Amino acid sequence: MVFTSAVMFILATLFFTLNLFSRLSVLSAILNPSVRLFLSTSLSLFLPVMSYLFSEAKNEGSALAAISPNSSSYSQLGTELSLRARTILMWMLLVELLRKKVEAILVNAGVQWHSGTIDRASRIAWLGYLVFYNLSSTGKKAIYGTLWVLAAAKLLQRVSINELLKRSFAYGKNAELLSSYMAQMLQEKDQQAGNGNVQDEGAELLKKCKYAVMGEEELEMKPGPEGYCLELKKPSTVDTDTNTDSTIITVGDIWRLAEKDKDGVLQEDPSLKRLCLSFALYKLLRRRFEDLPITQEETSNCHSLIFRGLREELLQGTEVVLSTQRFDEERKEELKGMVVAVAVFEVFDEEIQFLCEYYHSVVPVVLSNPFFFLANYILFPIVVWAFCLLTFILCGNGDVRYAYHSIITDNYLISIGMMKIVGCLLGRIIQSPEALFTTVDLAITMLLLLTFLYEEVWEFLVFILSNWLMVSLVCEYTTKSRWRDSRILSGLIRRILWVRSKISRRNLCFNQFSMIGFGGLSPMMLPKKAVPMEVKKSIMKYLVAQINDGHAHAAPLSNGWSTLQSEKHRQSQYRSQLSLACESKSVTEVILIWHIATSLLDRNFPLQNKTSMGAHRKVAVTLSGYCAYLVASYPELLPDNKDGTTHVYKEMQEQLKNALGGCWRYHLSLPGTRYDKLVEISKEQEETTMVQMGAKLGDLLMKMAQKQEDVWGLLADLWTELMVYVAPSGGELHVKAHKEALAQGGEFITVLWALCTHTGITRPAIAPWEAQRHHALEP
């Protein structure tokens, strides 16, 4: 009894606290992975264990009734459960209601889903047996029966949602449908391009974008040997606000409406247009996770859309805003680059969040639309409470008055009152152990009940304020003129946007790890930090400068080697020595060697963040720390073989342990001691291990800094190229690794991977230094 109450109190407290504080920081439909793992593990054996304890409490009550047949306290236990047994049964029902909030709304069919559904149904059936077979009092059976009906209804709701997701062309079957749509759409686009149309840029290109946002499931389709044959509407030659003749809402429809509707919500908040673009891109990228290819024609089209369309529009809009500000030209260019980079990365970050919520959401936000809101949050509760009322009537054998009277008289909390019972228990808590345990049991029940109510309110808020519902509302607003003309409906969208603006949203973050100054913490335990704007700007600048529509003169993408050969940095007298540190087939070795060198330079030559060199330092140091984190925690996301990456990382650890004087000094020595030891190693002549190579490279960088060379600018460019280099991957293992990383909310490299996948950015088959040598050997 004591142990059961103690364990349940701890579980209920953790359940309430973890659910509360894991979600207060950010509005998300995804439960914190660590919290979800803990709660799922805790609940996996809950029902079997509690069923055993329920049986023990029931038998104990029956034994007490048999021993003391004349006692008033036990006179009713011959036909009714004891208070302890009823309390345990209440806990099982409440935990079963809460269990639904921990399990993801799976959208994939398969044996796992069917076995999970059978397991949930068996739990509900078992609880129904315990409630209706063991309780004889009408009032108690009505209360417990109502909770069981709620649990059964939640199960049916989850199964129905899953079946809808699995069978609908808007969700489960959307990937195949969209592949056929994109193939036919691009074929029509090529035919139009053959008529000599001039290439558009900026907003004009976006207004002609045919990427589907919503409605493609309504197209007439016919299955064929190569997918679905769709009946696409002929493009209109008239410059209309929206393509009202078509069932499909495209990115171009939304952009055209935003230009025409001067006083509309799309003009007031341009980020809504980009949110819809993110949604369209999410649908396209989902195909890679479901083993469907993305064609070269698509990547070429998307490359133009992002770099010649979205980026140019952002540049023009930012220039208009900055024209009214008093900044010098250099500062304006810097701000323009910063704003554009942040906005572009926001598009792809939102796309990854759509993917995360599609596969791992515990709230049905994927189905967000006005109709589902009406069905799920208005009609469904009405039906459920109708069944609860029916249960209430059946428990009273059709006598409603008797059933109502029994609920009041058979339940102490209702007949006596919560406050009186709590006051009575607290008054006797010191003298009576039974009063103490009863108080604890009551507190556990209240915590579980409050947690359930909190989860219900939170689900409703997450649904209302989700990006999914906002995209659906924007599509309704775009296609239906009565929505735009209605002050109520347009005002509703504005109110939701206002509330969303007051709530903290997710920032694009990454972890930082140092091989030298890790402080004894595991990489997974390190807190996340927001990706600096300088990093986003540097990556976007590199993509625009180096991969500009595939021009032949662009430097090949490399692990940093091409940066060292560029006109900007090739004048350095140390260029050949620096280049040798990049000439390795192992990306992991290059990352770790340059990471040690960057860490040594940062330790000895820090710069203030407010200077231009300080911005370069921030880019180099943060990208160095993040790449080291990927090596330590997510080797499967890097280009090298996972086992090979792990081997190199462990080898580096062993080398550091040997260099620092053993395992204890490696883990317990101060960061300053580690840095000083590496500086000593840099003076040695031998250069055989990665640690020695990194220390030597760090010493070389410090010599460059002493000569006032732009060493931080060089490192910023090198780490930027290296970060872009490790992001693209088309192999199935890497795609699977990125899909698995979505369970943790997605990584920064996954955002970059999405950008590269859409725009066709790939690594060259042959390393550029090897290609240069082969070219030099040719006669």
TrEMBL record:
Pfam families: DUF4220, DUF594
Domain of life: Eukaryota
Chain ranges of the DUF4220 domain: 113-516
Record protein name field: DUF4220 domain-containing protein
Source organism (scientific name): Triticum urartu
Biological classification of the source: Eukaryota, Viridiplantae, Streptophyta, Embryophyta, Tracheophyta
